[in-house]
Amino acid sequence: MKTKKNLIIRNSAIILLLLVSACASTGDISPGRGDIISWQALPGWQQDNLESVWPALKNNCLTKKLPAGWKNTCTEISMMGQAAPDTIRAFIETRFVARELVSINNKESLITGYYEPVLNGSLTPDSRYRFPVYGRPKDLVVIKLDKLYPELAGKTIRGRLDGNNVVPFYSRAEIDNGRNQLAGLEIAWVDDPVDLFFLHIQGSGRIRLPDGKMLAVGYADQNGHAYESIGLSLIRRGVIEPEDVSLYTIKNWLAENPRELDQVLFSNPSYIFFSVRDSRLAGPIGSLGVPLTAERSLAIDRRFTELGSLLWVDTTLPGAQARPYQRLMVAQDTGGAIKGVVRADVFFGRGSRARDLAGTMKQAGSLYVLELNPDRMASNVSSREVKSAN
Fold first, then answer.
1. Tens-digit pLDDT profile for residues 115-152
2. Which domain does 353 fall in, by range?
3. Among 26, 36, 77, 332, which residue is least crowded by beta carbons within 10 Å?
4. Cα–Cα distance, 311 to 331 (Å, whole number)
């Protein structure tokens, strides 16, 4: 008699066949990386005050998921204490080399932003607080396909058990259709469905309770459905021009068209589940498992850039007059909408400035990945070998 685990594996194999056939035509995609460039050629490198990136670098060293070779770098960072900007610059220049990331198929680069929103909510529902923030469902099944097929490393599918079958988990429309499919999983209730939707987009936030206390919530899991942009949905409807799409234009349109609210929100079937996190931390926890640092942490596409990597961002801030925005950042997060080599999402922090920048940021730009200097790594290995031999 087959166990439930065997049934899950059997069903995942069927889904796997669909995935393999869908991916067969694209082949393996390698990140586009240019030649090493000099630090003098890195746009704005000398102007960045690197002191504020040091906490993000220290946070990087809190995890064991870092790229190869970082162990010695983290040891040096811990020994340096609080370093001055020029010391940090010299540290980076002697331990890393910079390469420009190059778009595949000459696709346009895109740098966007996200932030930590603050919602109004309660731990108990009432006539005002009616919209639930859900924790992770216990029947959410996560299948890592590389356990069966190593060539599919990083590929994961999510679903739920329906008898002996693995079926897709509930979509946004199925969760929020009033049937209360996830009753009992509520962490809190908030007063605005649009703010709740954008909490899902941001992936973490804080809920201001009636007594003024803050409940911090962060990403726990996702329902397995692909992310679909409601901004793109409104563009296809012809109600917002592509160049005008922002957090504010979307919110304004939804406020003016309440009868179409559900239809628009349901066009994104992806749904995020949350957990309560430590509100004492300055920032939310990213995909790397460490706290994010405002304007120093970056969400990337991990297919092309490894989590924990250092990146130099060369872009502009939105506004009537575009202002250069060039700074060193750390790849400490990912996102469902972050797809591509030259694609990144800047974490702007919390507050009105962060909200305004994240809500309007959709800039072209360049990304440069900072790789550990291979010559220095080789010399470190040789040095260790000499000590070992002695």
1. 999 999 999 999 999 999 999 999 999 988 777 777 77
2. 29-139+181-375
3. 26
4. 7
